[in-house]
Amino acid sequence: MGLLGHKLSRRRGWLWAALPLIWLLWSTLAAAGANVPLSGAWREAARGDTPASIMAAFRQGALKTFNPSLLQRFPRNAMGSWVVLQPEAAGSDEERVLSIYPAPLGSVTLYGEQGFVHTYAIADFNDAFHGHGRLAFRLAPGQAPLAPILLKLEPDNGVAAPERFAVQSMDEFLLADSTWLSFATACFAVMVTMALMALCFAIMLRDVTFAWYTGYMLCYVVVQGVQTGFLFHPLGLDWLVGSEVLVGASAVALSVSFASLFISRFCDVQRYAPALQVPVIALGFAMPLIVVLRCTGIDALVMMAQTLVNPVLILGALLLLVTALLTGVRGSRPAWFFLAGWTPLLVLTAMTSAQATGALPSLDWLNDASIGMGAFEAIVLSLGLADRALTMRRDRASVQVLADRDALTNILNRRAWTEAANRMLAETANTERPVALLFLDLDHFKMLNDLQGHAAGDRALVAVAQMMSDELRPTDVLGRYGGEEFVAMLHDVNQEQALQVATRLCRRVHRLEIPIVRDDLRLSVSIGLAMRSLGDTLDTMVERADQAMYYVKLHGRNQVHAYERRTEMYGAQRPKTNFTQDSP
Predict the structure, then answer these.
(1) Does 185 map to a domain?
(2) Fewer beta carbons within 10 angstroms: which end of the chain, N or C?
(3) What is the DSSP string of 470-508?
(4) Where is each GGDEF domain found (predicted)?
(5) Mind listing the pLDDT tens digit for each residue in 462-521?
(6) What's the number of domains the chain is made of?
């Protein structure tokens, strides 16, 4: 059942990991409302341009045409770009909304028949009407349904990302907006939850691997939060306004840094790919250095950082991919979890980068897929961390067993027995539950070793230890004290019961019929018994049981003797024997 339960748990884990992708497909279909068909034209802005001159040029066909439903990249340097959208159908009489997706970081100005209407950006907090993941403008209710819509994409120093345009009724826009918001919120919640959970495990387990995972995932959340505008709306982090480009670039660099440090430990690069250990760690420290250079404000250093960041990102991504693949092939189980979660995200990132150059204009869902894939990666890597933690726990348990068990007899060694016996004494310290300690020493064991060899002695020790393990209760604490000496601590037994147990052990050892030198001399055991009394420690109990055992050694062996404190009154006189078991 344990193995079956583990397999079912893993299957459920992969199902949960796939949910963000299933939701992405559902949200894409649900958000596909009946948009107003559009045609479009654009031109780079120049000095002397006016809204009237641009509209005149549009009517004369002097602008470049494009399909607004496909992603189009517009230059934003210098003076920006003009965009004209021409509705080709009147649509309904409801209030209409113009949306620009993905949300551009730069500002956009909407012009109407009377001129300037509104300038808006994703980081704008002055307007109560906001789109989520997109820039949205309410179109004037009195505007003619087929009237052209004029936009000015204002200059921006950031990278000009491709955009598409849509005109929808207010109801259709709100449906698409709420669907995207639900999807994005769920994905971000998954990523943050997994990151914080990993941070808790990092603190509890004192394993920095979980901390690197937390840093990587939180940085990715910041990257996607800036790119989609989620940090501004709905989270409302207005203190980021003006620094969103720097924050986003820094988060990208730090995410690669944390990813390299994470993969170094998670995939055990030092063990499976030692030659790549130094490059991976160097990448982890190079990316923060680039961030520092960019934050200096010194033009030369900022330009250097901007020049270095993209090549380092590309080379770093390839390095991490090769490292994970190589360690996985060489036996690192966690590496396959990393590849399963990280490779699809890397592919999406490469495709998104290609879109920035004008490729793949119809794949407008890549930005949303990056959010969903981030949640997918968070779940997969969390499964990998859980698998790693379970493996480490099993390994530590195995090492603990090896450290606690006597290598020959497979019962507790002296150190482990001492710890277990002290725990038993502590657990029963404030109760009236009786505790007995047996000290056992095999008789004539040295003679057995001398006459038959150490191999025969080892076999005898194993047989005696196995017999005592079978005779005693599982909750009793049995251990090898050293050489041919054994100790056992029994709980909830009075002296008479403990004597009966010890007598049974004497008989069972003798019945093993392990010969010493001839048939009439067999291996036997001498046992001393001490009951816990007020003020006793483990050392004092062992000392008294040891004294009782030596009394048996001096008076015939193969017997049990119980030590009593009143015998101390007789000074050097022989302690009183409560019970003696003659040889069987």
Answers:
(1) yes
(2) N
(3) HHS-TTSEEEEEETTEEEEEEES--HHHHHHHHHHHHHH
(4) 433-565
(5) 999 999 999 999 999 999 998 899 999 999 999 999 999 999 999 999 999 888 876 678
(6) 3
